[in-house]
Write the structure tokens for this entry.
Amino acid sequence: MTKIRFTILIVMLCMFSVNIQAQRHKKRKPQPKKEIVEEPVKTPGQLLYDNMLSSTAKIVIFDSVLVRKENAVGNIPLNKEYGELKTTNTTPAIEANDSMYTYINEYGNKCFFSRIGSDGKSHLYTADKLGNEWSQPQLIEELEAGFEDIRNPYMMPDGITMYFAAKGENSIGGYDIFVTMYDTEESKFYKPENIGLPFNSFADDLFYIVNETDSLGWFATNRNQATDTLCIYSFVPSKSRETYNIDDITPEQLNGYATISNIKSTWYDKNIVRQALKRQDNAKKEMAQKEDIETSMSFVINDDITYKSISQFKSAKARGMLTSLYKMYEKLNIYEKKLESLREGFQNIDKRQRKTEYENIYNMENEIIELRSTIHKTEKDIRNAENIELYKL
């Protein structure tokens, strides 16, 4: 009897359990199938950008200007010791230049430029000036690996550090700016490196130029611009690369710095901005003065030669002295006008003040005599330097 009761109890418990499970299944609502969203595959350029983002350079971009592509380098006020950026049609003895410009060093005896090869791509070349003639351009072979196209070189005055624009496997998109160093012992360039953000972008970034003397830098890009337009950003270069503390800013802010969404966001010190703008204005004035000299000068070298342009000078030393000479001309003009004014006012002042004014006139006359003597000597030194260059064996 006991066994029968126990068996019945077991059956009842099983039926109760089955009933509970059935009730539970009735209460459950069918769950919709989750849609699997696949992450978009990133391009190599996007992956490179993501990798560079945390190392975005912290710089002050104090100015920007939109220019037509063909006129871009005319807006870069370089000091003479930083060489020249010659447009294609003004570069002597260099044909088929595919760069926006040819870079010629301070001494006028070495240049870098690009040329389209038989493969339809631009390659970087260099040439040396021997006497009055340029040597046969030489391909810089060690810069070929990893690039599809190279152009717009800029060599720093140290003769070692060179920047250029290129398309290649390490470009974010289009042209990026790269830097390389020249090994003087091996006579070749090291493997170039991408200079990173914010100088490079998914668009074409076409040149990078630095004037360390005036603490000014410029880089050009067509990001967010029409095909024939470039934006030239002016920035304050630093001796060592400084980056943002990513713990102090949001990812959106960091991306804004990297893409230059607003240059004013880089103005963490407005005094730096004001000083940089002033330095750039002064550099542009000096460049304008140089252009004025180019258009108005007439300088006798010897009985047979008279130059009408600075570019005609073969001697780098003579060109340097010529810039100083024209500043002396301007100073002499100011002194002579001041002396004339002192003399005109001398007769109309009180006799008690005439002694002081007489001393002022006397001192100004001596200043003018000394300045004229310096000008005469400088003119002679320029002629000598140029004639030595012209007729050296």
Observations:
- The first strand starts at residue 60 and ends at 68.
- The helical segments are 2-27, 44-53, 251-259, 270-296, 316-346, 351-391.
- The CA atoms of residues 153 and 231 lie 18 Å apart.
